[in-house]
Each structure stands twice: as structure tokens, then as C-alpha cells.
Write the C-alpha cells for this entry.
Amino acid sequence: MLVTVTRNGLHLASPGPWPSRAYQPLRQTSLPLVTANNFAQVLDIEGDAPRNLVSVVAPDGRFQFYVDGQPLAGGVVPFAAPLQFTPDFQGENLPLTLRPGMAGVIIGPRDGGLNRAADITFGLLGSAVR
């Protein structure tokens, strides 16, 4: 599954093969999310202040998203197709198809300014791997 965070939105999808064009969250591939009443105000991640974004996917497909420890969205992924990258993606030991249980982070382009991650952690809750 693919989680896309933008400055004013959160999209959850199971797109299968990576599109040959730049990824755009599509309504027909997005999975429904239940969001908190203050979702838009808390998700505003613009600015220089560090923010802590956490997405959790449970083995049964439950998805939860937090910003600075505050739960903002949740949903259920009924089925996730293996994510397949095009040969345009290159990197040392980068597989073109992610096997079940594999995860990755793409820190994508913005319209301007610096886009940076200070820390990325993968793993089971309570036993994260950095």
C-alpha cells in the first residue's frame, strides 16, 4: 500500500505497479479514511518546525496515522497488491517489487523549500529498527 502525505491531504492507496508518470493520488485508487475533526489544522506540515509523522499498518490491514502523537486518521486496507517500481528507480539493493512485509520511504519533491527527514524508523511497534 502507498501512503501519500501532502501539505493538505493524506491518501491511502494500493496501486500495484508504480505508474509510469509521476504519482498523483487518484480518487478511484484511494481507500477511505476516517479523519479527526481537526485534521486539516494539525496536518498543516508547512514551515520549519520539526514534525513527527507516524503511519502504522497492522497485519490485519488496520491503518493509523499520527502527527506529533495525535491520532489524525484511520482506515482498513482490505487488500494490498505488491508495489512494483519501474526501472527508472535505481539504488543499491533496491528491488523492483517489494515483497510482503517490506517498506520504504520516498521523500518527494515540493513546490519549493527544503524537504528533509531527520529520522526514519521501520519495525513493529515497541521494537522499531532504525
Remarks:
- The first strand starts at residue 2 and ends at 6.
- The radius of gyration is 15 Å.
